[in-house]
Specification:
It is a single chain. Helix 11 links the parallel strand 11 and strand 12 (about 270-275). Helix content is about 40%, strand content about 15%. Helix 1 crosses helix 15, helix 8 crosses helix 10 (about 245-250) and helix 10 crosses helix 11 (about 260-270). It has 2 domains: about 5-155 and about 335-345, Glycogen Phosphorylase B (Rossmann fold); about 160-330, Glycogen Phosphorylase B (Rossmann fold), CATH 3.40.50.2000. The protein has about 350 residues and is of the alpha/beta class. The termini are close together.
Length: about 350
């Protein structure tokens, strides 16, 4: 029997991206669907927690200077029934229990993945949840982890008709508009995002002459603080909470290649052009090439010379229509519910 009000703590170390925090939020919402009284705490270094978590869940934004003692103190006060860590190995695990801890193991580059497999912490946690299919993950699990690991599938938000209608009203989008959405994700990798936006601006200048009905929404991401000038036909937005529903209305999306963005585009079935960024642990280029091989997207790894080719694809109705049609064969089963059920079971183990 599940506790009437299970107490679950999520730790999200990542400061610059949103993927870890958003994955935790999607699981937390699925937990609340099954246990409405669940008491959930997010402990993070991500300043976006106030915007993303504050209306639904308790949260603590810890300064970078905070050490293990603060995490231990938060756990002592909150007394969780289960603790959830995501991707980044916690620095504070020596001060935290592992008997009721779950680790979300998103796929990483090979060298880092081997380090995770060999981690004492991952070896000690009670549960490992992998937000991929086995084929997508692509690594063989060591025997020390296989018995407690579960492939739950992608953990992302889903679009909804009401949210999509609200987004269209908010931006004044009409059925006749050609909607282009451009976003680097959270925007926390500032130099990378600035290069992305420079390419996007060049694309806009070319495409505006080819698509008179162009509505171009540029979503900076909450962590990108630099100003962006908006030429005619472009709207610059700091953050869009219903981004996946905006994707569902978009005729085309230009994006980097983060885990959340790629899987939300698959759920929204939106044609995409990817400009993958370089990350220490996450191989964005590998991720988006998989969609390119299936004809769902195009990938440009050399951004500086890509604007003309991107604009040509964005003006090509045949390419866009074929990419959207191929989504009929793209099967995606979300892991939000399965992850929530495993964590709730852990909370009463």
């Amino acid at each position: 029997m599940q506790p009437v009000a299970p107490r679950i703590a999520f730790q999200s170390h990542n400061r610059r991206g949103l993927g870890h925090l958003m994955r935790g939020l999607n699981i937390a919402r699925a937990i609340r669907e099954r246990a409405p009284a669940a008491d959930i705490l997010f402990y993070t270094r991500n300043a976006s927690a106030a915007e993303l978590c504050g209306r639904e869940f308790r949260y603590v934004v810890a300064p970078d200077t905070t050490g293990p003692a603060d995490w231990a103190a938060q756990l002592a006060r909150f007394a969780p029934d289960a603790i959830v860590y995501d991707t980044l190995l916690p620095n504070e695990h020596d001060a935290a229990p592992v008997t009721r801890a779950a680790y979300i193991m998103r796929k990483c580059k090979p060298e880092r993945q081997l380090q995770i497999f060999a981690s004492t912490f991952v070896g000690q946690v009670a549960l490992v949840l992998i937000p991929h299919t086995p084929d997508e993950f692509g690594y063989s699990l060591p025997s020390t982890l296989a018995h407690k690991s579960y492939f739950v599938g992608p953990i992302v938000r889903q679009p909804g008709p009401a949210a999509q209608a609200a987004v269209c009203r908010r931006y004044g989008i009409s059925p006749a508009d050609f909607v282009l959405v451009s976003t680097p994700g959270g925007g926390g990798f500032a130099d990378d995002a600035a290069a992305f936006f420079a390419t996007v601006r060049q694309v806009h200048q070319r495409l505006a002459a080819l698509r008179p009905n162009l509505r171009h929404l540029v979503i900076k991401g909450p962590h990108f603080q630099q100003p962006l000038a908006a030429p005619p036909g472009m709207t610059v937005v700091a953050y869009e909470p219903e981004l996946v529903s905006l994707f569902a209305r978009a005729d085309l999306v230009i994006a980097e290649g983060g885990y959340n963005t790629v899987n939300e585009l698959r759920v929204a079935q939106a044609p995409a052009i990817f400009l993958p960024g370089e990350r220490s642990y996450d191989d964005q280029a590998e991720r988006v090439r998989g969609l390119q091989r299936r004809g769902l997207a195009a990938v440009f790894e050399q951004r500086g010379r890509a604007a003309a080719a991107i604009a040509a694809l964005a003006a090509n109705d045949a390419w866009l229509g074929a990419a959207r049609a191929r989504y009929a064969g793209d099967q995606i089963t979300l892991g939000n519910r399965a992850a929530a059920e495993h964590i709730l079971a852990l909370a009463v183990a």
